[in-house]
Amino acid sequence: MGMEIDYQPDDSAVSLFEEDCINHMKDMRLEAEAVVNDVLFAVAKMFVSSNLESGLDVAYINVETREGNRYCLELNEAGLRVVGYAFDQVDESLSTQYHETVYSLLDTLSPDYRKAFGNALLQRLERLQQNGQ
């Protein structure tokens, strides 16, 4: 037992470092999956693109709003932005603004998203109130 404790700091430092590298590699893709799961209920379709290469620093998300408009979103460290007006489309000439969250992005794109999201929020609040009483 005593020996193990002596070695622990080095071991954990190394494995933490390795883990960090591995985690970072899957980072944006995992992040993208989380983003999709978060707002799926308020859009028509949404999924991480399997045709566009998601990697370390960037992932692409296809979304179809309830209005039937399609967008390709780019997710990276800076946030999310629209990069195309069709699934799996990246238009290099677009310089759309970055949004920190998927909520604010969809908020600008889709009034129906806003409605669905607002309703879900209200329902949740009502449920909380009922449970509180």
UniProtKB/TrEMBL annotation:
One of its GO terms (molecular function) is kinase regulator activity. Transmembrane segments: none annotated. InterPro entries: GSKIP (IPR037395), GSKIP_dom (IPR007967), GSKIP_dom_sf (IPR023231). GO terms for cellular component: cytoplasm. It comes from the Eukaryota. One of its GO terms (biological process) is regulation of canonical Wnt signaling pathway. Pfam families: GSKIP_dom. Residues 28-128 form the GSKIP domain. Belongs to the GSKIP family. This is GSKIP domain-containing protein. It comes from Esox lucius (Northern pike). The lineage of its organism: Eukaryota, Metazoa, Chordata, Craniata, Vertebrata. The gene is GSKIP.
